Queue: 2 jobs
Job 1
Amino acid sequence: MPSGSWLFRRAMRLLLRWLRSCVKQGRSKPSKRLGELWLYSRLLLRSLCFSETTNSDVVVDSLFEPVYWLVDHLTRWFGVVFVCLVVVLTSSVLIIVYSFVLPTVVSTYPAPWATWHLCFGHWNLVMIVFHYYKATTTSPGHPPKEKCDTPSVSICKKCIIPKPPRTHHCSICNSCVLKMDHHCPWLNNCVGHFNHRYFFCFCLFMTMGCVYCSLSSRGMFVDAYGAIETYYQTPPPPFTFKEKVLHKSIIYLWVLTSSVAVALGGLTLWHAILITRGETSIERHINRKETQRLKQIGKVFRNPHHFGIFNNWKVFLGVEKRSHWLTRVLLPSGHDPYGDGMTWDWSPQRRDLVAI
Ligand SMILES: [Zn+2]
Ligand SMILES: [Zn+2]
């Protein structure tokens, strides 16, 4: 009984012969393009059929390569659209807040309360813009392509370079990324060792900003919603054009900020749990599988990058002394994360991080 791999090799050889005969027949009018295609197909088929390391995974990966290519390119293209969407939506919210919400707050609230609104709102805005800009423009970090002494756990099949611990290949960026968390289309960038803090802080401050906008415009939203309900009465109340724009803008503001607050709040909470556990999104899946595997043989999995809840946060935020909670967490800061993203044989205990 012939095995599946034997049948597959046989089919590939027949396909190879058929392609060769096709080219021989068409040799009377050969073209350079056809010749290149033939050479490429022959190389592809031979590497699939006559390689000792070929298995079903390699064959399936090769067959699906055009699909992966299409998805990766679409994601890369959509990344630009998503970044534009973030900028446009945030700008539209800012225009509405500066045109309608802040003037109402300043004219109706007591002076101390209005001052607090102005200070908090602008601090939150600066933190959002700073962290989004840094998250999109900072490279997540890549392992060196040339030969070096950094420890590696495997070889990347795509880049053909050693992969240090916690490094993973991103097919959308087409490169290996240090301490890769995920590829974020909203940033059009990978989230890795050097921009993970910027990504998380952006999510956190954006959620805070949306909650703030949603809560502070709630009263105006109720009034605007009530006014729009009366549009359908006969005869309709005599609203001016400016009042109609105000009502629709406030409803748009409240619906958008409330929806983003819920969705982004959930994502921020998930990432906060991961940071607390000292793992990335990819490591969450790997560690879960490893925990189950070791449990079956009576062993317990220990995450080597978990230094304790408080220390994990200090390592992640780059807090080394008390003043850093203000200068590096509550104010915009461009400091580098701990380590080079390639060696992980250190712990914060050894660096006296717990002295705070
Ligand atoms: Zn790679
Ligand atoms: Zn990527």
Job 2
Amino acid sequence: MSVVQMLKTEAIVDEAMDKPREHYQRAFLDLSGISIEFPTKKGPFKALDNVNLKIAKGEFVSIIGHSGCGKSTVLNIVAGLYKATTGGVILNGKEVDEPGPDRAVVFQNHSLLPWLTCYQNVEIAVKAIFKGKKSKLEMKQWIEHNLHLVHMDHAMHKYPAEISGGMKQRIGIARALAMEPTVLLMDEPFGALDALTRAHLQDSVMEIQADLNSTVIMITHDVDESVLLSDKIVMMTNGPAATVGEVLNIELERPRNRLELADDPQYNKYRAEVLKFLYERQRRPQE
Ligand SMILES: Nc1ncnc2c1ncn2[C@@H]1O[C@H](COP(=O)(O)OP(=O)(O)OP(=O)(O)O)[C@@H](O)[C@H]1O
Ligand SMILES: [Mg+2]
């Protein structure tokens, strides 16, 4: 039985039990009962076990956890690049079973095509999605608009080899945004950047997300980054058979200012919660 069928059956059972209407309202993005086993030479390796997560439309969710616990695997399942062994993902009422333009991915290694300029790297995604829907001029304006959002207008006709790592990362983000994805999936998007560029890009992503009300899943290793950007921090247990350990709701007002938050007791409380989870409750054996 597919996950959609399972949930439908569940809904019918609920209906029979005369539950209130809200009960049937499923999460916008619903990860339910996800387990995955990878075949290895030593036999199957269970990376994830029973991962459950409900994400509302417009929510910014961070996934944090120690290296190798399975964060990228979760993201790849939502992207439709990996298939869960059991359970699955429902996005807006539809089961995810392959990659699609409704889920843009920003990979950590900024995967730009080196023989295309920055503009053309964004254009290739825009053409694939908006061909027949936007005119040539509209597409050009849309590409330029998204490059402007990440402050890359000045270098749009340069090739990836001619720009810095941070700039490449920004082009990757512009390309993902230009796809107008329903869900933006980012795997440690700021991991390789220097502190200043990282802060600048975090602020841009917060602004863009506020403007577009995008639903975002971002993987990070950075505790401050997760508290600053998120509505919800999902803390994963160590693998193998990793799962969601705790979920922390971040109820800090937006727009958020990193300098003001540095002295905010609530911010520091959230920060301490995440640190405690990572370094006390999920301490790695070698530490
Ligand atoms: N295709 C695969 N085949 C076999 N094992 C895999 C595969 N992909 C991931 N794994 C294993 O699953 C576990 C989770 O990997 P994953 O890449 O999701 O971790 P992660 O939390 O993203 O780590 P990091 O923070 O280092 O990026 C690891 O033990 C990894 O070796
Ligand atoms: Mg990873």
